[in-house]
């Protein structure tokens, strides 16, 4: 019986809507596949419409997705038939399902071709070649084409080779032509696109599309800088601001406005070239905070650098020089296109001759069957009209990954083009998950429809926002990040309320009965510190930390929800996935680190096939069957399953072979092998070990000879079959770790051998040549698909590979890895709209200059690359069902936090990542950190930023500070006592001396912060997924995080002290502060200088303290009360204590307390980083309320006097906070 599903209103609308074009914007986890299946079922079972399933075209992204969709439809129909056994229509639809066009775009095009091949003069026996054969044919053809151009001795071609060749060969030119050819084939009309590439060089006006785009992008950035400057001017007008800088900033602002008001690109360039920065005033400004001055200077430097880059990269020449370079580059482009056209035509001819096509040919041939272009207009063929009348609806899944060519094909078979009243294209996708730019996907198609379709009419947009996969916090953290970084002006995609993810899956509440874990609620961002910046080293460090983290997750019993059982259960390895931007260089390192700790792991990779051990062995065997004198392959084969030689035995074969081989033969391993193989039969043997080795050589040589004989009469496939199966090798690898995967890899090799036998190449020699050239071209076979669903192991995969999948716990690793902008710096840039761009190479002067076209295109590529990385991050973050952990390696966690705190405040002020700031994104941390460090009142998700605290633990970056100080209470107290003579404290005598009883030695002495940590709510511990030893370490070890009222990101000063030492420096200043001198900023500076001169502080400590912070305290209400108490002699500072509480000895240090109206006021200094505002205040009170309660208890117990008020003074906030 078919279960009736409850659909959301949006899903129901997407299922039921008819007679219009529909764009379903389906957010991650919103059930789009279920909606698509239900729509199809409702259409083919609607008695009023009577639509057969073979009258629908359903295009999916992969064959697997198509097969799954067919399977779901079949099961639904079978279930309905069980309820209605006599339903003729259901029986009919089940029968027609096998031939229904539920398939990929390639397969749909192939169906068109097979049914209409005469219309494109295609041999009916055509064959589809694989990527390897395709690459070999293209390479051979290009070599022939270039030889022909060399033979023609064309001067412009020789100039092209000189300009773009690689020294003594033309490999650089080969790569460029190949790149242009591959890109051109994503266009519907290849020849037309080639011609349009020249138009941009013929247009020497400011209306040139490339120049106009560059002009607009620069103006967008200038608008952002104007806003930043206006804020800087406001900062200068504040009491502590550098008012003397205002004049220079206003002068800059005037210049920025003039640039913005430029009427065209030429005027903009002239204004930027003549723009100069007025020197900042050196006039002494006694009231200005030096750190604010540094901040203003730093922000101004960012704009200086931007203008410098424009002058160096874009406006380095005047208008005449710009257009002259365009002319010169245009000549080179024309020749380049000439070669590319000949190459494209020749490849097509060769494939026709051989009766083969590739996947891209499928689309172009289908297009030729359906559409012609005459005088710039599309003319649809009779075949197209017949197909359009046949199909009732065109349904396109993953529409965000379509390209222009596919768009034209599917439009050609739709009724939409026939009549405006029969709109029948139904598109489903999520442009935020468009991550296949490298496959030339065109997300702009989705964006254009998204922006123009409405809620009603002929073109309707429907939003599916409900996510049925992830917990609310995972979704809200994603919402927080992308609502702040997806700037529509920059990336073309906005993120507003209409696309926010909303939780739709009803996870049961956590409770003791279901073993749920509250700690899973936060999204953790872990910063791993490394002094070594080499990528390989940082990868190994991160891999090691992740292995320990995963070990802790599983061993400590972190719980995940099991929907099938409706219970919470302990997490297993299978619940965890590690996602990386690229698996190359990462996956193996991570897998090794996991397996070193006994954690089973699997790397899901589509590359690296040729490097896996089981394939290397077979390739080595095939190589020596073809040519046994290949020494490396022979040695590898001998030491493999097929030979069984040890390294020592191989060395002995070498030694004996040199002694006994025929002196007239070549001195190689094969001759040595033959010589040793016959030693036993020649009566020359004396030692049993040598005789045994001789027999081993003879057996291996016999097997090799057998394979060599068979290779001349058997097919490649049969030879490989015998090596893999008949030899027992297949069963052997099955007994190894990941045996099923290894066997699947061998099966892939067999399939490729069978396919190669049908190709235009043949024979073992050519197959090996084929493999070697694939390696050279960085082509690869995908690893075999082995079912690992039931394997309890950690999966390591790329973000691309994870699309469409989900996991209870997701670890996004390598968040520090730089975005790859190499496409923007390549010798030749290619773009769908702007064409082709190169540097102008002046062969006479031997100079190379970036053209304005290349500058425009490079900026576009950078922008598109960043936008795609944002979408990749969206995919990664939305794979997690319950827990998301993000890790990255940084050189200095403290400096990194300072940097991102500054960006967080900037982001909070802007509300959205600006165009200018978006251009400066370098990695995922740049996207994530400023958001998760914002004021929590502005966020709906819960982030926890953690820093490395050694090999086995992490600590909260914002709670670590004061605990470390408490752990060192005795040492600090002793240090304070050494300097007690500096200030007189009459109240000291009132504290009774503590004398422990006889059992004290057996009691545990705890610091206040340790006791605080132990009494915290277990359900809200930050590190609940770590084992108990790690938790204990966290309670004992932490590092002080100091932050002045003006964050260190403003000052830009190099940090000289460790975080805990800076915290101690602040406390030291407050301990020794002379309130009779420190009455204003100058007095504070003088007082701190006195501490330096008298040896109470050293130079590094003094440099780490911001005098402005101390002056802010002095001027505060808390500071004035303390000063009055000092005058009355009723202040005690840095007071150590030990007291008994509930059978435990508690020790600590009270920063300051004073008597007021017969009762005590307790003051505790905090240097934690917190965001400004009410949220930061609440957070500090939450963190330290328990600690201050113990201080008050200690003070009351030891003095007998009541504590009437507890105050936290925050240097970050510049104010005192009362704790009740």
Automatic annotation (TrEMBL):
It catalyses: Couples ATP hydrolysis with the unwinding of duplex DNA by translocating in the 3'-5' direction; ATP + H2O = ADP + phosphate + H(+). GO terms for biological process: double-strand break repair; recombinational repair. InterPro entries: AddA (IPR014152), DNA_helicase_UvrD-like_C (IPR014017), DNA_helicase_UvrD/REP (IPR000212), P-loop_NTPase (IPR027417), PDDEXK-like_dom_sf (IPR011604), PDDEXK_AddAB-type (IPR038726), Restrct_endonuc-II-like (IPR011335), UvrD-like_ATP-bd (IPR014016). Its EC number is 5.6.2.4. Keywords: ATP-binding, DNA damage, DNA repair, DNA-binding, Exonuclease, Helicase, Hydrolase, Isomerase, Nuclease, Nucleotide-binding. It comes from the Bacteria. Residues 472-804 form the UvrD-like helicase C-terminal domain. GO terms for cellular component: cytosol; DNA helicase complex. This is DNA 3'-5' helicase. Residues 5-471 form the UvrD-like helicase ATP-binding domain.
């Amino acid at each position: 019986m078919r279960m009736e599903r409850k659909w959301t209103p949006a899903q129901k609308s997407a299922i039921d809507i008819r007679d219009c074009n529909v764009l379903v914007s389906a957010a991650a986890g919103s059930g789009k596949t279920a909606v698509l299946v239900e729509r199809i079922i409702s259409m083919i079972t609607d008695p009023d419409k009577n639509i057969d399933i073979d009258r629908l075209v359903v295009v999916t992204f992969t064959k697997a997705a198509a097969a799954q969709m067919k399977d779901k439809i079949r099961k639904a129909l079978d279930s309905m038939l069980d309820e209605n056994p006599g339903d003729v229509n259901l029986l009919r639809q089940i029968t027609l399902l096998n031939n229904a066009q539920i398939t990929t775009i390639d397969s749909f095009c192939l169906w068109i071709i097979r049914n209409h091949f005469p219309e494109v003069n295609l041999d009916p026996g055509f064959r589809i070649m694989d990527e390897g054969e395709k690459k070999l044919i293209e390479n051979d053809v290009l070599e022939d084409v270039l030889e022909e151009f060399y033979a023609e001795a064309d001067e412009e071609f020789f100039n092209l080779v000189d300009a773009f060749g690689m020294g003594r060969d033309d490999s650089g030119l080969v790569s460029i032509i190949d790149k242009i050819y591959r890109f051109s084939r994503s266009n519907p009309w290849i020849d037309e696109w080639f011609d349009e590439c020249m138009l941009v060089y013929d247009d020497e006006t400011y209306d040139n599309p490339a120049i106009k785009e560059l002009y607009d992008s620069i103006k967008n950035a200038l608008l952002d800088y104007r806003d930043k400057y206006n804020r800087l001017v406001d900062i200068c007008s504040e009491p502590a601001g550098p008012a003397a800088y205002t004049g220079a900033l206003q002068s800059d602002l005037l210049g920025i406005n003039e640039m913005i008001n430029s009427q065209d690109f030429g005027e903009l360039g002239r204004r930027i070239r003549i723009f100069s920065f007025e020197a900042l005033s050196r006039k002494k400004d006694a009231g200005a905070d030096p750190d604010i001055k540094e901040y203003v200077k730093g922000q101004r430097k960012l704009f200086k650098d931007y203008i410098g880059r424009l002058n160096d990269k874009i406006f380095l020449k005047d208008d005449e020089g710009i257009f002259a370079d365009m002319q010169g580059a245009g000549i080179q482009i024309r020749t380049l296109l000439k070669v590319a056209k000949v190459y494209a035509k020749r490849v097509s001819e060769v494939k026709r001759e051989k009766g083969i096509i590739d996947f891209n040919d499928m689309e172009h041939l289908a297009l030729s069957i359906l559409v012609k272009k005459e005088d710039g207009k599309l003319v649809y063929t009779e075949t197209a009209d017949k197909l359009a009348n046949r199909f009732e609806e065109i349904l396109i899944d993953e529409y965000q990954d379509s390209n222009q060519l596919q768009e034209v094909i599917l439009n050609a078979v739709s009724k939409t083009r026939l009549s405006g009243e029969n709109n029948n294209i139904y598109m489903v996708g999520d442009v935020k998950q468009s991550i296949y730019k490298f496959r030339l996907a065109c997300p702009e198609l989705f964006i254009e429809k998204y922006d123009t379709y409405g809620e009603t009419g002929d073109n309707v947009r429907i939003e599916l926002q409900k996510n049925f996969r992830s917990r609310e916090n995972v979704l809200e953290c994603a919402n927080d990040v992308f609502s702040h970084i997806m700037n529509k002006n920059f990336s073309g995609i906005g993120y507003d309320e209409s696309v926010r993810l909303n939780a739709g899956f009803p996870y049961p509440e956590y409770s003791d009965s279901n073993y749920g874990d509250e700690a899973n609620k936060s999204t953790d961002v872990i910063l791993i510190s490394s002094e070594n910046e080499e990528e390989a080293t940082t990868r190994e460090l991160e891999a090691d930390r992740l292995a320990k983290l995963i070990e802790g997750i599983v061993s400590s019993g972190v719980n995940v929800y099991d929907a099938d059982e409706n219970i919470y259960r302990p997490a297993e390895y299978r619940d965890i996935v590690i996602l990386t931007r690229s698996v190359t260089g990462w996956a193996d390192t991570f897998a090794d680190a996991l397996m070193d700790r006994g954690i089973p792991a699997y790397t899901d990779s589509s590359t690296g096939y040729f490097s896996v051990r089981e394939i290397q062995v077979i390739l080595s065997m095939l190589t020596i069957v073809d040519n046994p004198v290949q020494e490396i392959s022979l040695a590898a084969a001998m030491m493999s399953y097929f030979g069984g030689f040890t390294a020592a035995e191989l060395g002995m074969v070498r030694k004996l072979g040199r002694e006994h081989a025929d002196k007239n033969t070549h001195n190689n391993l094969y001759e040595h092998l033959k010589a040793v193989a016959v030693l036993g039969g020649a009566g020359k043997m004396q030692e049993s070990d040598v005789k045994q080795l001789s027999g081993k050589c003879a057996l291996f040589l016999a097997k090799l000879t057998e394979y060599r004989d068979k290779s001349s009469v058997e097919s490649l496939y049969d030879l490989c079959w015998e090596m893999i199966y008949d030899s027992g090798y297949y069963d052997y690898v099955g007994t190894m770790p990941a045996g099923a995967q290894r066997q699947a890899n061998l099966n892939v090799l067999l399939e490729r051998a069978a396919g190669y036998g049908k190709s235009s190449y043949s024979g073992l020699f050519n197959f090996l040549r084929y493999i070697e050239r694939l390696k050279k071209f960085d082509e690869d076979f995908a690893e075999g698909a082995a079912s690992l669903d039931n394997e309890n192991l950690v999966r390591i995969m790329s973000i691309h590979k994870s699309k469409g999948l989900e996991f209870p716990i997701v670890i996004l690793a390598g968040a520090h890895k730089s975005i790859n902008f190499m496409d923007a710096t390549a010798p030749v840039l290619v773009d769908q709209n702007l064409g082709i761009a190169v540097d102008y190479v002046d062969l006479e002067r031997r100079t190379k200059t970036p053209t304005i076209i290349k500058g425009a295109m490079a900026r576009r590529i950078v922008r598109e690359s960043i936008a795609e990385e944002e979408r990749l991050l969206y995919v990664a973050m939305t794979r997690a069902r319950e827990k998301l952990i993000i890790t990255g390696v940084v050189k200095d966690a403290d400096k990194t936090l300072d940097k991102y705190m500054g960006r967080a405040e900037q982001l909070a002020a802007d509300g959205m990542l600006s165009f200018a700031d978006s251009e400066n994104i370098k990695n995922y941390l740049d996207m994530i950190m400023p958001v998760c460090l914002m004021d929590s009142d502005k966020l709906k998700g819960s982030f926890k930023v953690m820093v490395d605290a050694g090999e086995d633990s992490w600590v909260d970056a914002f709670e670590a500070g004061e605990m470390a100080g408490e752990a060192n209470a005795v040492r600090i107290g002793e240090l304070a006592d050494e300097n007690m003579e500096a200030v007189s404290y009459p109240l000291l005598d009132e504290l009774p001396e503590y004398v422990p009883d006889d059992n004290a030695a057996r009691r545990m002495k705890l610091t206040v912060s340790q006791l605080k940590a132990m009494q915290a709510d277990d359900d809200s511990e930050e590190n609940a997924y770590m084992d108990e030893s790690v938790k204990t370490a966290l309670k004992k070890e932490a590092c002080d995080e100091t932050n002045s009222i003006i964050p260190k990101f403003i000052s830009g000063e190099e940090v000289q002290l460790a975080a805990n030492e800076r915290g101690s420096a602040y406390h030291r200043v407050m301990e020794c502060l002379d309130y009779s001198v420190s009455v204003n900023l100058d007095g504070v500076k003088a007082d701190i200088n006195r501490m330096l001169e008298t040896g109470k502080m050293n130079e590094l400590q003094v440099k780490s303290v911001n005098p402005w912070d101390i002056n802010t305290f002095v001027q505060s209400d808390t500071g004035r009360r303390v000063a009055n108490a000092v005058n009355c002699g009723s202040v005690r500072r840095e007071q150590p204590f030990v007291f008994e509480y509930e059978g435990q000895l508690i020790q600590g240090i009270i920063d300051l307390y004073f008597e007021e109206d017969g009762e005590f006021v307790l003051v505790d200094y905090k240097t934690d980083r917190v965001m400004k505002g009410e949220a930061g205040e609440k957070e500090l009170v939450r963190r330290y309320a328990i600690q201050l309660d113990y201080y008050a208890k200690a003070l009351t117990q030891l003095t007998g006097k009541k504590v009437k008020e507890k105050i936290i003074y925050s240097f970050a906030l510049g104010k005192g906070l009362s704790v009740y």
